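Lab notebook page, bench 4
Experiment: in silico fold of construct C2
Operator: M.H.
Input chain length: 196 residues
Purpose: comparison with the prior construct
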Amino acid sequence: MANTLNYNEIRERKVIVLYGEPHEVLSSHIARKQQGKPTNQVKLRNLTTGVTRQEVFRMTDTAPEADVSKKKVTFLYKKFNRQTDKDEVWFCDVDDRANRFTIPADVIGDQAKFLKKNTPVEAVYFGEERVIGVSLPIKMDLKVTEAPPNTRGNTAQGGNKVVTLQTGATVNVPMFINTGDTIRINTDTGDYVERM
């Protein structure tokens, strides 16, 4: 049974059900106007679609806490589905590789480009059956498959170049990174962290 949260309990990192969909609270601010009753001004992100929205909860408002759980799974491969005209991302249970399932790439978002074969990740479930996202490790090590040669010129600001990783993703990196190097990437921001 899910908890019911009062207006002032709807805070950062809580996940609530709004309009039948799970929403993560990104920020909240309880404000009180001179003669009025306090309100909680909340910024939410829909965990299914990724869309952010603003909501105002008054003193009498409540919201059910979402039943969200995580389960370890292994990434297998990405595939384009001609019938739906969308990319699908295939996973399997860590313990049973025969138990396979797919998640639309748009549910995973930009992090899908950093998935490499046999990477363990956490699938985020809403309720018992519905997968609403995937949680990747914050930092991942990926191999550079293509890197343009270094060029002479104005490197006073630290010069960068765009390289292609083994997963097909492209990332801005410092000039000293070459093809064959392994680099660490922050999967939340998509930024280069360091050469390994």
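Observations: The radius of gyration is 21 Å. Residues 139-195 form a domain with the OB fold (Dihydrolipoamide Acetyltransferase, E2P) fold (CATH 2.40.50.140).
Next step: discuss at group meeting.
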